């Protein structure tokens, strides 16, 4: 992320468009760069000349302008911004966004962008309350679009109620605080978590001590930054992340199936402690103690989910993160895993007896990539999750 926040400002055609001039002034004063796009209707309310003068940049209006498209096309406009703000967001613009219409530059940019989008709706109270608009708002929220306002109050049409656009200082504040809450808006991220249980017979399993705490904290931290999280979890002993799309599984085979089904995703974090082996043959009835001798369990290897997803071609997430629980030669072994499995980052932990990490509240992680290692101090799993989520956000923004 660059140090100056670059806002792509789409000005919609409503009477509240006049407030954009004050908003642009405040954004510039706060040190943000503003690239303006106006709809045709917006130009009926404020002149492109005033907008351009305040932004210090030319206003873009037409999609089929040969000079403009050659210099900076609609994809480039989105690429060169950190977030897109739609002010005022009219009922028509919201409807176009919700339905994926792209018949002018503003709506085309909005369909083409993968950047966080913030909208400041402004319209007559009945237009706002109409089921069609409310349905569109719901759809857009589901797509990760962030809303500021509308407020309750008197409107230009003489009526009073919800529909009045938020004041420029509130929109400025939402834009400035937006990145932290919304660094991962519009991103879909897979997290595997917890242990897996491999059945031996109907009552016995091969398991491990993983609680699922680290994976749960990571899911919560990703959600706090706006990501949509698919959480594939084995039988965990901690509360699952609220609002994540939970897929509960038991065995490694089920986890692999659920993980494949969750694709495509932007990033995948494999925090699960997958049991390495499973019983070669699962007995259909309980193995009885009275059997002649203690049973000899024949085991075979489970699929390596992390390796399999890392080695995909078309549907490989653009960032794949594995975990490595080690008891000796932590960094060396973790680097070996990074290469052997083909993931992008490995979070290595020393889980030797007495470290209290497996099943505990704290972690002492080292993040290993092909470019080196970053040893972090001992910290709570929640703290580490926040740090990792910020790193993921920065990496996805840079890609
Ligand atoms: O090889 P090892 O089990 O130590 O690798 C740990 C990493 O690989 C973790 O990210 C874990 O979630 C993942 N893994 C996996 N499927 C397996 C074994 C491990 O996804 N069968």
Q: Please list the strands of the largest sheet in the order they lie side by side.
A: 12-11-8-13-16-17-19-20
Share of helical residues: 25-40%
- Extract low-pLDDT stretches: none
Supply the helix-strand structural class: alpha/beta
Largest sheet: 8 strands, mixed
> Which ligands are bound?
cytidine-5'-monophosphate
Q: Please tally the helical runs, counting DSSP H or I stretches of 4 or more residues.
A: 14
Radius of gyration in whole Å, from Cα? 26 Å
**Portion in beta strands:** 15-25%
**Strand elements, count:** 21
Shape: elongated
Mean pLDDT: 90
Structure, described:
The chain is α/β, with parallel strands linked by helices and 399 residues long. The protein has 14 helices and 21 strands. It has helices at residues 19-29, 48-55, 66-71, 74-79, 91-99, 105-112, 125-129, 131-142, 168-182, 213-224, 252-262, 305-310, 330-341, 381-398, and strands spanning 6-11, 33-38, 83-89, 117-121, 146-147, 151-154, 160-164, 188-193, 198-199, 205-206, 228-233, 245-248, 267-270, 277-279, 299-301, 319-326, 345-350, 362-363, 366-369, 372-375, 379-380. The chain has an eight-stranded mixed beta sheet with strand order 12-11-8-13-16-17-19-20, with helices on both faces. A hairpin with a 2-residue loop joins strand 19 and strand 20 (372-375). The longest helix is centred in the C-terminal third of the chain and has 18 residues, at 381-398. It is elongated. The mean pLDDT is 90. Residues 192, 252, 270, 272, 274, 302-306, 322-324, 337 line the site of cytidine-5'-monophosphate. Cytidine-5'-monophosphate is lined by residues 192, 252, 270, 272, 274, 302-306, 322-324, 337.
């Amino acid at each position: 992320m660059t140090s100056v926040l670059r806002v792509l400002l789409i000005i919609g055609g409503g009477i509240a468009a006049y407030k954009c001039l004050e908003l642009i002034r405040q954004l510039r004063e706060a040190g943000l760069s503003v690239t303006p796009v106006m709809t045709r209707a917006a130009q009926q309310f404020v002149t492109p000349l005033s907008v351009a003068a305040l932004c210090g940049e030319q206003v873009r209006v037409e999609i089929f302008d040969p000079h403009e498209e050659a210099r900076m096309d609609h994809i480039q406009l989105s690429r060169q911004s950190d977030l897109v703000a739609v002010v005022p967001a009219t009922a028509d613009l919201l409807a176009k966004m919700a339905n994926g219409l792209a018949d002018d530059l503003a709506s085309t940019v909005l369909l083409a962008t993968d950047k966080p989008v913030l909208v400041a709706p402004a319209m007559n109270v009945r237009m706002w309350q109409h089921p069609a608009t409310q349905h569109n708002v719901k759809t857009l929220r589901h797509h990760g679009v962030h809303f500021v306002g509308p407020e309750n109050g008197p409107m230009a049409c003489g009526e009073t109620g919800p529909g009045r656009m938020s004041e420029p200082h509130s929109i400025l504040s939402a834009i400035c605080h937006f990145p932290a809450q919304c660094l991962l808006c519009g991103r879909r991220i897979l997290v595997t978590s917890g242990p897996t249980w491999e059945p031996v017979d109907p009552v016995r399993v091969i398991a491990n001590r993983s609680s699922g705490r680290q994976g749960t904290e990571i899911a919560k931290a990703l959600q706090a930054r706006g990501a949509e999280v698919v959480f594939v979890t084995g039988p965990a002993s901690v509360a699952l992340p609220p609002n994540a799309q939970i897929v509960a599984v038991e065995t490694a085979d089920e986890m692999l199936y659920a993980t494949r089904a969750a694709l495509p995703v932007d990033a995948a974090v494999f925090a699960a402690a997958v049991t390495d082996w499973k019983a070669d043959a699962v007995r259909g009835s309980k193995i009885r103690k009275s059997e002649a001798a203690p049973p000899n369990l024949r085991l075979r290897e489970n699929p390596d989910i992390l390796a399999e997803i890392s080695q995909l071609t078309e549907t490989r997430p653009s960032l794949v993160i594995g975990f490595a629980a080690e008891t000796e030669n932590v960094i060396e072994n973790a680097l070996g895993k990074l290469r052997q499995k083909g993931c992008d980052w490995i979070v290595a932990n020393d889980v030797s007896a007495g470290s209290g990490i497996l099943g505990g509240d704290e972690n002492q992680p080292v993040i290993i990539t092909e470019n080196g290692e970053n040893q972090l101090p001992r910290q709570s799993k929640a703290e580490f999750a926040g740090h990792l989520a910020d790193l993921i956000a920065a990496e996805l923004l840079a890609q």
